[in-house]
Each structure stands twice: as C-alpha cells, then as structure tokens.
Amino acid sequence: MTGPAKITSKTEVEEFLSKYDDFLFDCDGVLWQGDVLLPHVKETLNLLREKGKRLIFVTNNSTKSRKAYTKKFSKLGIEVTPEEIFGSAYSAAVYLKKVVKFPADKKVLVLGESGIEEELASEGIQFVGGTDPALRRDIQPEDYDEIVPDPSIGCVLSGLDLHINYLKLSMALINLQVPETLFLATNIDSTYPTHGKLFPGAGTICAPLVLASKRQPISLGKPSKAMMDCVKAKFEFVPARTCMVGDRLDTDIRFGQDGGLGTLFVLTGVNTESDILAENAETVPKHYMTKLGDIFELLN
Amino acid sequence: MTGPAKITSKTEVEEFLSKYDDFLFDCDGVLWQGDVLLPHVKETLNLLREKGKRLIFVTNNSTKSRKAYTKKFSKLGIEVTPEEIFGSAYSAAVYLKKVVKFPADKKVLVLGESGIEEELASEGIQFVGGTDPALRRDIQPEDYDEIVPDPSIGCVLSGLDLHINYLKLSMALINLQVPETLFLATNIDSTYPTHGKLFPGAGTICAPLVLASKRQPISLGKPSKAMMDCVKAKFEFVPARTCMVGDRLDTDIRFGQDGGLGTLFVLTGVNTESDILAENAETVPKHYMTKLGDIFELLN
Asked: Recorded E.C. number(s) (chains A, B) (predicted)?
C-alpha cells in the first residue's frame, strides 16, 4: 500500500489540480480557524476559479442558513453565493423535499436554530419548535398531561440547539414513540470545536432521544451518504473528477472516500500529520498538504 | 431449568415469607402508580413489619432527597422514616463520601435537582450547579471564552435535571475533559415513566456528555453494583435472606439477582407476565405475583 501523497512542489500542485474539476471544501479548519482567515486562502480560491474549477462549500454547521453563512465568508473577504454553499440544514430540507417527498400537510418538529428554520421554509416545509420562544421555558406539571403525540408532526429533526431544554426533549421523544415519525439529524458531530475548546456538538442534542427512543436518526451531514446523495443530486459532479478538501478524517475525508471522490487533507484543523501516518490509521487521504494556501504559494 | 414460581396461595406466601428477613422495595409500579396507592399495599407493609421483617425502599429517583421522599409516602398514608429510604442521590453522596473519600476542598458539579444537593449537603460534600438560578440561562458569546476547566471541581454528577441547558452541558463537558474529574450518574434510566407515558430519564442528561467526552459514568442507581455495595454497607443484610421486590426486570430484578438476593416480581408496573415467561427472557425472577397486596390478601 502506498501512503498518502504530500504535495510540496509546483509540479505536484499542477498534477493534483489537473485531476479534478470540482472541489468540495469543508470550511472551519480549512478556510479559517474561528474568525481568522488562514494564509493565502483567498488567493487560492481565486486561482481555482480562474482555472475554471467549480467550488462547493460543504458544512455541517446547521445553525446558519446558506444565506446567513455567506455573510461569514463576506466578513472574511471571500465572495461566495448561497448556491455554492451546502449546509447540513439545507441538506435536511432537500432530503425531506426531494427524497422523502414530505407531505405538505405535515410538520417537522425542529430542535435547532434559525438555520434549520430558514432552509425548511425555503423548501416550503412546515415546522414547529425551533426558535419558538413559547418553548424556551421550564416543563410545567400540566405538560406531562398535555404532551401527546401530535398527528400533524411527521418528522423530528435535530441539529445543534443552543436552547435545548427538557420540554423540547420531551415533545420530541413523545413524538418519536410513534414509529411512523421520521427521525432526522442535520449531523451527529459529538463536539463543536470553538475558541480552542470542544463544546457539545449537534450529536449531543439527539443523543438523549437516541437513548430514550431506541431509534437512530438519519444524519444529513458529513460523513453520511444521505448528504453526499443530496450534494450530488444538486451539483451533478463526476465523483472521480471531484476532490473533497477537509481537516477532519472521520467526517470530511471519510465523506469524500465513501462517495468515491478524491481527498485532500490539510493540517490546519482537528487532525494532524501523525494521525494519517500512524500504522493503524483508519482513514488515509489521497493527498495532503500543510495548508490550503500552499496551492497558491507553490504555484507562485 | 424451572421457571419462576408464581405465588397464588396462602401456603406459598407463608413459604415465601419464611425465606427472607429483609425486603428491598422499588416504589413506583410496586407500591403506587404515579399518585395512586396500589390495593392493600399499606396492609402488606404493616403485616411485614408485624412479622419483624425489615423494609428498605430503594429508588432511582434522584430529584427528591430521602427526607422529601418520605412526604410522598406520607401523602399516600404510609409511614416510613428517611433511614428506610435509599435513593440514588443518597447513594451517590455515600459513594463519594465513603468509597471515593472525596476531598473536602473539592466540589461536585451537579446536573440535577434539589434531591442531589440535599443529599450531598447531608454528607458534607461541596457542590456547584444544581438548582443555581445563575445557570438557568442561555449560553452567551463570552461563555465560550470563560468556560474553562475549574480546578476546584473534582466530579461531575448527573441525574434527572428538568432544567438542563446548553450552558450546563458545556460546563460539565469542559470539566470532564480533565481525565482526573470523576464522572458519576445517580442512575442512567433511559426513560422516566409518568402519566402513562415515557418521558426522558436521567440517562438522557448524561448521554450528551458520554457522547462528547467519550467517557462512561459510574452509575449509583439500580441495577449498578455500586448502589448495591452502598445499600449493603448501610444495612448489613444477608443477601440470601433478603428479597428485592420490583416491577422492572432490567433494573429491579437484575439488581437483586446481581447482588445475590432473592427476587419478587410484581405485575403492576413496566414489565408483564409474558416478559418473564417468554422463551428468550433475559431476566427471570425467582418469585412473582400479580401485585404486592396479594401478600395481605392471600394471608387473610
């Protein structure tokens, strides 16, 4: 077995770029770290566009809609359109609309933030919960009587919910006890890396429901096949001519590999070079480089 | 293999009672259902006391202290003392004090209600979190900077917390990332049966932490051995002369069996007769009867 190819020269960059027409990018840890743009990312993205490559930004962040997420790019000086962004909230909305053909008279019970609400609304899907201030309260004695399965709810969709509480968990659980209720998650990341620390990720919002309902959600985020199917259906790329760029082996790189894409691993995020060179490494990328900006730097 | 023995006659009751000196009772589903006392429970408990049997009430409910729990008995017309009650919050406090010998200068970060706080206080253990109103709020941007491992916290203890939120989960997770921080749970019941429905149980409060920290808590509730050790240390009963009475096979009956106690299963709660007579039944009690009150009814 040959190890992953480290790209360190102009010739290697040119050869790498010649293999792919379309690039899927993870964002945090690849383009930026928190609120800081990584070196020569802007120049690299411009260079790829000039060479006629198509850029698609794939994120598990469900708290922001695609439209809201463009503002994050814009703030850091990168111009992208909402159509170039594929977030897990949008992925869930597309899955419900196109794959499940979710009935127009049914509602989705959302555990999550406005990103999910905006994407469901953009696909014309009805929802309850989410950021509804009426549910941001303690459970009351009468709730134990009043929370019953709601026949108008056809799906529980959980994402990162910074306003999670026992009331919302109870409503979701009682509805999940109806076997016909769909159970989706925007993603099941166990942690949410921010401020140099690991906070609870979207997976921690559905973990209580998984335990108590004995059901597993369909995840619409990386590395799930469902997300890849949604991205492919929208962008119609050729897998062998497409490269997934990411900093996490268990989500980004596995996502690319499972979809039959090429993979480029960068060392500016969660995983390290020793993770892929270890003898028992589970996920090994096809290519890797120190940082995404190396593409620009090595070519110039 | 002989199946479980159903007790249906006066002789069988007398033979059963002659085998045991001490009785451990689960409460909900055995003594009462919600707020309704089951038939002839009061008479049965009186009868057992008259015969010189010792009664111990073992509950996974951590939201109430032993003292608060006596009020529940009293309201239903049963007189018990706090010393006869062994709750999972008390179990956790005893475990910290006696088994771990938790340092006096360290604090426990509590995810749970006043029952845990009262039991920790009764053992002289310092704590933070719990019902502190300062933590009943949304996470704020500055919290991502300010939440750091607190060297004064030596343990995260999670129970059923009806006021769980993202802020408390974040504080617990960041402290659990320090390997020296103990991780305890009053119990890990996946559901909390009430009002004829299954609401999220104490296990759903620690499930997010288990997922994100990749750590498993030591559970101090049924069916854990740690709880049995605490009960035994306090009451010094002879296992073979002690009977665990319960309505749940996976907690109560397993708890009794694992501890080498006799077991009496009653049909007034979660599990049914067909659960124990099924060919693939995992947990089979030694004895069973329709309801606890049968002891009184059959003897009279």
From this structure: 3.1.3.41
